[in-house]
Amino acid sequence: MPSRPRPGARPSDWLTLSEASDWLGVSPATLRRWGDAGRVRVFTTPGGHRRFSRTGLHRLLPAEHPGRPSVERLGLTPDRLNRVYRRRAHEVALQAPWLAELDEAAREQFRVRGRRLTGYLLGWLDIEASGTGDPETADHPLHEASTLAAEYGRESAGRGWSLSQTVEG
User: Residue 50 pLDDT more than 90?
Assistant: First the structure.
């Protein structure tokens, strides 16, 4: 691990551990391991604090896919995806004995929630493809999908289902 940044580097080229971990969305411990393993450029300040290269961190991010066609252009409309989802859900239900425990009202609640979740995810894919929308806003489809997924988790945990059962069902 180098003890100083390269000559001519601007202070903004280097991030603190917390800034870097927030920016990448990983824990500080993970970032420390990556630095120690040489996966990302890092140096230690005279005070013993790590600084991470913004350029090095950027290389860890997935490549962007400019020009990716919209979900709609691919023929994946919400209605079409919902039809596939319903057909697949029926096949899974036949193989998932824990779903037999649900009464019809609970099944319908899960169906409606699943369709809404699918719609939000399709909306998110279209926003990503078009490069519009702010994921930090409360009405962003990804935020809505996350809220709905949390409801799924609470409901499933209350029924004693495992994570894999919840995702499969």
Answer: yes
